[in-house]
Amino acid sequence: MIRIKAGGFKFDYNGSFNALAKGLRMNRGEILKKCSDAMLLRRLVQGIFAASTIWIGFRFYLFYQQLAAGAEQVVERPPGVEAFLPISSLMSLKLWIVSGDFNRIHPAGLVLFLVILLTALLLKRGFCSWVCPVGVINEMLNAVQKLLFRQPLVVRRWFDYLLRSIKYLLLGFFCWIILLKMPGSALKAFIYSPYNQIADLKMLVFFLDPSTPTIVTLSVLTLLSLLVRNVWCRYLCPYGALLGMTSWLSPWKIRRDAGSCIDCRKCTKVCPANIRVHCAGAVRSDECHACLRCVAVCPVKKTLQLSTRGHRFVIRPWMYAVCIVVFFFGSIGAARLGGFWQNNIPLERYRHYIPLLERFNHAHGGQVSEGRAR
Ligand code: SF4
Ligand code: SF4
Q1: Does residue 308 sit within a domain?
Q2: Are 78 and 63 in contact (CB under 8 A)?
Q3: Which of 9, 33, 37, 258 could form a disulfide with 28 if both were Cys (CB 3.0 to 4.6 A apart)?
Q4: Number of domains the chain contains
């Protein structure tokens, strides 16, 4: 093994001299710049989506408050809030497929659900690390964890596999109920029920006035996230499981050129999903969420890339950032123009339902449990 020092950058080398020559073409400054540029880009995109989410949440809160107070409508309901209703969106997708009915109860939810699935199909699980606000919170908790403990708790490989199966079990449960058990008529009844119509408002009230079990659950999740990395995303999120499965079909993968790789293992060290990138030809793991940290940190040019087979089509970090922003906002724009964004629930119906929110219960077929509403 040869120990190399170059431009203040040190690494151990035991590969071919061709690779060594390539490795030395970048100095420490270039590597750090490349890394920070890519990470900065991801932070920027995360910031754009996080700001949009906060803006949507704030407007939805104002919308609710003005109706609850019986005031004139000033703020319109932001349809983007439907992104937080993935189960309703899965139902809408099935109803659309089996009956051709693209319902106008939560059309934005279905549009966003399709966009997110398509992102996974084309751009891997990038939604998790570039768009999802829960992913941002997760990364913040990871940063706090680093400050507090330096090293996260290491979960043994077999236990990690066991825990990772939880999100697939949850996904399987929802798919079994919705895709296999529910006939089209039951789906239609649910989607057009008052319960589903005001599911977004119920969700808001749920978080504005959390019950004791909700507070306990969120606190336990936060504490666990401070001990173990990515608890929610890695072990519990059924949406992540769905995207992980879909991303297997993506032609783009993180691909390593074994010929030029100098086995420095930086890629493996930075991977937040604990993937052994340095020994993979192509990363096929469902846990790869296309954060591109490994690509950014690799010191050898064109050795690690997000590309199709044979590196025919390579997506560089800046292209990925542009693709994901244009794809999301372009699709939303197209849905707006096509009339697939705003729902058709009249304002008067919201006014009628708001005082009855507490009484809506899907256990009663989406009707008010004491029979006060239609
Ligand atoms: S393999 Fe690379 S892109 Fe995938 S999660 Fe790990 S660091 Fe991120
Ligand atoms: S692929 Fe990984 S191990 Fe190989 S040179 Fe790049 S960072 Fe180092």
Answers
A1: yes
A2: yes
A3: 9
A4: 1
Digit-coded pLDDT (tens) for 343-361: 999 999 999 888 887 776 6
Taking alpha carbons only, the member of 80, 105, 30 closest to residue 329 is: 80
The predicted pLDDT at position 14 comes to 43
> Distance from the CA of 261 to the center of ligand 2, in angstroms?
5
**Nearest ligand to residue 304 Cα:** 2
Ligand 1, residues 127, 289, 320: which to mutate, most atoms within 8 A of Cβ? 289
pLDDT beneath 70: ranges in the chain: 1-36, 360-374
11 within domain boundaries: no
The residue whose C-alpha atom lies closest to atom 4 belonging to ligand 2 is 261
> Ligand 1 centroid to 292 CA: how many Å?
6
Of all protein residues, the one whose alpha carbon is nearest to atom 8 of ligand 2 is 264
Determine, yes or no, domain membership for 242. yes
**Among the listed residues 202, 204, 259, the one whose alpha carbon sits nearest the alpha carbon of residue 23:** 259
Say if 124 falls within a structural domain.
yes
Residue with CA nearest ligand 2 atom 7: 298
pLDDT in tens, 211-224: 999 999 999 999 99
Please indicate whether residue 38, judged by its CB atom, sits closer than 6 Å to ligand 1.
no
Helix orientation angle between 238-247 and 107-123, rounded to the nearest 10 degrees: 50
Predicted local distance difference test score (pLDDT) of residue 329: 96
